[in-house]
Amino acid sequence: MVPADEQRGKGDDMIIERLKAAKVPVILVVNKIDKVHPDQLLAQIDDFRNQMDFKEIVPISALQGNNVSRLIDILSENLEEGFQYFPSDQITDHPERFLVSEMIREKVLHLTREEIPHSVAVVVDSMKRDEETDKVHIRATIMVERDSQKGIIIGKGGAMLKKIGTMARRDIELMLGDKVFLETWVKVKKNWRDKKLDLADFGYNEKEY
């Protein structure tokens, strides 16, 4: 995929050479066609066409949705059907607990903005269905490195923590397709980012921090 409003550069040339050596069918997608005059778009397409033989060239505007459905059809026609590794209703290979923790963490960072740095992690302590209420009961702990960060996340009278929980619960319910009862706590664990064991417990690995 290349942008219609930028000229071909050295990075593009390097990728083209690798694609030539791979000897596989290549589809060129020219995005942002809404930003250029048709003559400029044609010149861009001609320039790339002179570099190698593309199986298909598809101009699109991802922003406006122009020609996107045609691109999807072309990709579907050219992709070979492979082995089904996951159930058809599973939308990701990440465990649900990890996604839940990331949704809570995202709300913490969004609502506290510059007050809380990225030294915050969320651990889902338990996640199970309550037979009496027929809700998914989730207990989660928000980990920070300093007492001052804990105070900010809890907020006056617990207002900030309640807001974080309410917003996160809505997203979690949409993901799970179930009603959710979410309980959150805030715990201080100094310098947790410096301890590899803690990082693993919180769902991170060395490539992610």
Quick synopsis:
The chain is an alpha/beta fold.
Key phrases:
209 residues; alpha/beta; 6 strands
Explained architecture:
The protein has 209 residues and is of the alpha/beta class. It is 41% helix and 19% strand. The strands form two sheets. It has a three-stranded parallel sheet, sandwiched between helices. It has a three-stranded mixed sheet with strand order 4-5-6. The longest helix is centred in the last third of the chain and has 18 residues, at 159-176. The radius of gyration is 24 Å and the shape is elongated.
Counting H and I runs of at least 4 residues, what is the number of helices? 7
Instruction: Report the average pLDDT across residues.
Output: 85
User: Which blocks of ≥5 consecutive residues have pLDDT under 50?
Assistant: 196-200, 205-209
Beginning-to-end CA distance, first to last residue: 29 Å
Strand content: 15-25%
Q: What's the total count of β strands?
A: 6
Structural class: alpha/beta
Strand order of the largest sheet: 1-2-3
Overall, the morphology is: elongated
Helix content: 40-55%
Q: Kindly provide the radius of gyration, computed on alpha-carbon positions and rounded to a whole number of angstroms.
A: 24 Å
N-to-C SSE string, H for helix and E for strand: EHEHEHHEEHHEH
Biggest β-sheet, characterized? Answer: 3 strands, parallel
